Every structure is written in structure tokens, then in C-alpha cells.
Amino acid sequence: MGKHTAHGYLVEDVYKEAEKFTKVFGFKPARIDETFAGFPMEGKVEFFLWQWKHLEDNLGKDVMAKVKYRDQQAIRCDTPEEVDEAYEQMKAEGVEFISEPKDYEWNARCVYFLDESGHMWEIYCWTGAVPLGDLDPAKEKNGL
């Protein structure tokens, strides 16, 4: 478990924020749409931007109101069972989760918790084809 880690920011406008990172740092998105942009880095690290409203819609506004900082850490597991096992182990250690493990529309099984400082964490694994979003070069936004 945890062979791949990611760090990202929870933003209002994914395209606007992604444009900054592509122009200034040359980041190339592997996936981008209005709700998410993922930028693979060297090794097993990924940087991402995730739309705040999309998380509110999927986790609930009451849950997202508990998030103190607009950043997120993520740990990728290899299987859905590993997500569930991590959830059970951490819950037994006293970690308070803000969600139960769940399969989401973006082809991932995820569970979320806040650390003691209020940072949001995700434990996830891909459950199907990794959604690539809208990467048609003819479309206006994804050329960044």
C-alpha cells in the first residue's frame, strides 16, 4: 500500500489554475477536465488540482466545511481491499474519517479523513480505466 503519493490543491477553477502551472513550470496534464487536473511528476508522485465544488457535490457541503486548508494529500493503494483495510486499521487507531470507503464515478474507490491540523487526506485506488477527461486537442480549454 502507499506506493504512489499525490499532493494537490482544492480550487474554484481547474482550467485557470492549471494554466499557471503549465505556463510557468511546464507541467503537462495527464488528465484534465472542469473538475480535476492530474500532473504526473518524476517517480511515483503526482500533483493535482481538484475543483472544490465537485468535492462538495460528492462528499457533501457539511463534510467540506470541516476542511481547514484547501490542499489535499493522497495515498494510492493497489486494490479496493487495501483501501478498506487501511480504513479499518486507521479507524481502530482512532482516526476520525469524514467519509466511508465508496466507489466514485471517477473510477476510484476512496475514503477521506482530516489530520489533526485540518488537512484533507484521501486513500484511494483506481477501480477501472483511469478517466482522462477531455483531452481533445481541438477543444479550447485543454490545450492550456
TrEMBL record:
All residue ranges annotated as the VOC domain in the record: 2-126
Identification of the protein by name: Glyoxalase-like domain protein
A Pfam match: Glyoxalase
SUPFAM superfamilies with a match to the protein in the record: Glyoxalase/Bleomycin resistance protein/Dihydroxybiphenyl dioxygenase
InterPro entries: Glyas_Bleomycin-R_OHBP_Dase, Glyas_Fos-R_dOase_dom, VOC_core
